[in-house]
Design brief:
CATH topology of the domain at 203-362: Pseudouridine synthase
Largest sheet: 9 strands, mixed
Order of helices and strands: EHEHHEEEHEEHEHEEEEEEHHHEEH
CATH superfamily of the domain at 203-362: Pseudouridine synthase
Function: Responsible for synthesis of pseudouridine from uracil.
Organism: Granulosicoccus antarcticus IMCC3135
Shape: globular
Structural class: alpha+beta
Strand content: 15-25%
Oligomer: single chain
Number of helices: 10
Protein name: Pseudouridine synthase
Helix content: 25-40%
Catalytic activity: uridine(1911/1915/1917) in 23S rRNA = pseudouridine(1911/1915/1917) in 23S rRNA; a uridine in RNA = a pseudouridine in RNA
Number of strands: 16
Radius of gyration: 22 Å
Family: Belongs to the pseudouridine synthase RluA family.
CATH architecture of the domain at 203-362: 2-Layer Sandwich
């Protein structure tokens, strides 16, 4: 499958020298964008929240008021409207690193602490890390998961990661989704990679095992927003943000299939929500798959299926423009053992069903 994306956000060259990447990067390197006219009419703080989504809108509003975030080099108000064509620059405050490292959780202890962790690093250079994340690993601290996250492991891997927003984490994988993710090692690399995501230049292909008779291929174009009743879940809703998912069936089993899924956008839980929306929920999905995962009894009772306790989703392929060389690079990661075992069991069960049907037809 080949997909194209149109770039409507241009990144300006970033200047500045870094002798101390753990601290100087935060203070010295501005994040700078030139805004396309399509943003015309939007509030400055709304545009800033889209461009600099690593930070909360409240924090960005404070930085606008304090003059850290400027438009064409001038201090503006959060409510000022964008015209289009302006240059927006965010000069991160010099105390940001200290704020990150002392940010406290409910127990008064910092969440941003280094922790030894066995990271499965697929690729490493001075600009990026490519990590094959196991299922069960949370990306960064949040209520209920203050320790033992990928962010904590990155801070232990290199102290310099503390000088990059969220320790360099550019895009997220759900806790129980396995597979490839990219981590920026410098502020400039982080800006470059975020731009690629916003411009839909970063290629992300996933492997999923879903229920039902899936079409050969298809595209799901349906907006995603918060669920009306359960704020921890997402849903297809008219008031949601645009979301586009492409899929292709690569192997059929009995009452389910393995599919390759290409993200055009990157909404929270996008694959899980979209596949459920068209009646093909992911096997094992605790949030979206239980009520719709109506499998043939023969499949539902297979131990590998019944015991699969996470969504059957793996980030298989990651393609991007290297922020240092400007050359395209790509990485692939085989399915983890639990998904391999799941697919093998489904193949065996499907083959047994075919043999039984053939035997009955001959009899």
């Amino acid at each position: 499958m080949i997909f194209r994306a149109h770039i409507n956000l241009r990144r300006l060259p970033i200047t500045g020298q870094n002798d101390n990447p753990a601290a100087a990067d935060v203070a010295d390197e501005p994040l700078t964008y030139r805004i396309d006219p399509e943003w015309a009419g939007k509030r400055l703080d709304a545009v800033a929240a889209i461009l600099f989504d690593t930070y909360s809108r409240n924090r960005l509003q404070s930085w606008i008021a304090e003059g850290y975030l400027t438009v064409n080099g001038e201090v503006r108000r959060s409510k000022d409207k964008i015209v289009g064509g302006e240059t927006i620059s965010l000069q991160l405050p010099p105390d940001l690193l200290a704020d990150m490292l002392t940010e406290a959780d409910g127990d008064g202890e910092s969440s941003f602490v280094p922790q030894a962790m066995d990271l499965n690093i697929v690729h490493a250079d001075e600009h990026i890390l490519i990590i094959n994340k196991p299922a069960g690993l949370v990306m960064h601290p949040a209520p209920g998961n203050r320790r033992g996250t990928l962010l904590n492991g990155l801070l232990h891997y290199s102290a310099a990661q503390a000088g990059v927003p969220r320790a360099g984490i550019v895009h997220r994988l759900d806790k129980d989704t396995s597979g490839l993710c990219v981590v920026a090692r410098t502020l400039e690399a982080h800006t470059h990679l975020v731009r690629q995501l916003q411009a839909r230049e970063m290629g992300r292909i996933y492997t999923a095992v879903v229920v039902g008779e899936v079409p050969i291929n298809g595209t799901i174009d349906a907006p995603i927003g918060r669920h009306a009743r359960d704020r921890k879940r997402m849903a297809v809703t008219d008031s949601g943000k645009p979301a586009v998912t492409h899929f292709e069936c690569v192997e059929r089993y009995l009452g389910c299939a393995r599919v390759m899924v290409k993200l055009e956008t990157g909404r929270t839980h996008q694959i899980r929500v979209h596949m459920t929306h068209i009646g093909h929920a992911l096997i094992g999905d605790p949030a979206y798959g239980r009520r719709l995962a109506v499998l043939p009894r023969r499949i539902a009772e297979v131990p590998a299926v019944a015991d699969f306790k996470r969504q059957a989703l793996h980030a298989t392929r990651l393609s991007l423009i290297h922020p240092g060389t400007e050359e395209p690079i790509s990485f692939e990661a085989d399915m983890p053992e639990d998904m391999e075992h799941l697919c093998d069991a489904l193949k065996i069960t499907a083959a047994d069903a075919v043999r039984e049907a053939e035997g009955k037809s001959r009899g």
